[in-house]
Amino acid sequence: MMLSCWLHSSQDLQHVLERFAAECEAAGMRISTSKSEAMVLDRKRVVCPLRVSGEVLPQVEEFKYLGVLFTSEGKMEREIDRRIGAASAVMRSVYRTVVVKKELSRKAKLSIYRSIYVPTLTYGHELWVMTERTRSRIQAAEMSFLRRVAGRSLRDRVRSSVTREELGVEPLLLRIERSQLRWLGHLFRMPPGRLPREVFQACPTGRRPRGRPRTRWRDYVSRLAWERLGIPPEELEEVSGVREVWASLLRLLPPRPGPGPSG
Fold first, then answer.
1. CB 163 within 8 A of CB 150
2. Which of 31-40, 160-169, 208-217 has the lowest mean pLDDT?
3. How confident is the model at residue 4 (pLDDT cuts 50, 70, 90)?
4. What is the maximum alpha-carbon separation in the chain?
5. Alpha-carbon Rg of the chain, whole angstroms?
6. Is the pTM of the predicted complex or chain greater than 0.85?
7. Which candidate, 171, 173, 169, places its Cα nearest to that of 132?
8. In Å, how far from its chain's centre is CA 149?
9. H or E element: which one contains 68?
10. What is the C-alpha separation between 175 and 195, in angstroms, rounded?
11. Long-range contact list for 4-9, CB < 8 A, 24+ apart?
């Protein structure tokens, strides 16, 4: 069970949970406490005991939901690491039978790349906050597969852009950024009251902890639109509100310039 709430206290959350359990029982359903867990998003560990039918739900620091790993710190780095690891496992499993098999055509190998490898690597990427380290790791995972399909290695010192152009493959980072900006447009066009839009536009109260503030997805994607499309944050909602205009801008989004001889 996943019940996402943004409330001011554990008492409020317990009250909402009790109402939810009552509605379930009225509909002939029952919350399974053996399959339910509680997690608090906070930089420090916060104890939040919740009960369902008198049983205390176990509080965890992380859990998977719909294939995505959520952590109590609210960071996505571990999930991105998992995605890269899962993609590496895919490549190992098909390495001899597909990737380097000479009897298979490039078209067949690229079909495996597009239909299995890329979805495994980028699952849930719309809400990633991409840093330079993340971009570098994603590109390394991408080119690890494509170089082998092209029959090359790092020792050949051929630019990644040359390899992609030869194979007819769009840069994976371009695909990720386009999807993130597309999701941003969906959020802005959602009618008032839709939960994703409400969460996106919410402004939490309270004081920030000491230290450098974390980059919120909203700040990241607004900066991405400014850097890649030249749209300032104050005009973003207006421009993305017109679906056809936004879609045409995303179709024209150029690849990022590649750094160095392997970029």
1. yes
2. 208-217
3. low
4. 67
5. 22
6. no
7. 173
8. 26
9. strand 68-71
10. 26
11. 6/199, 6/202, 6/204
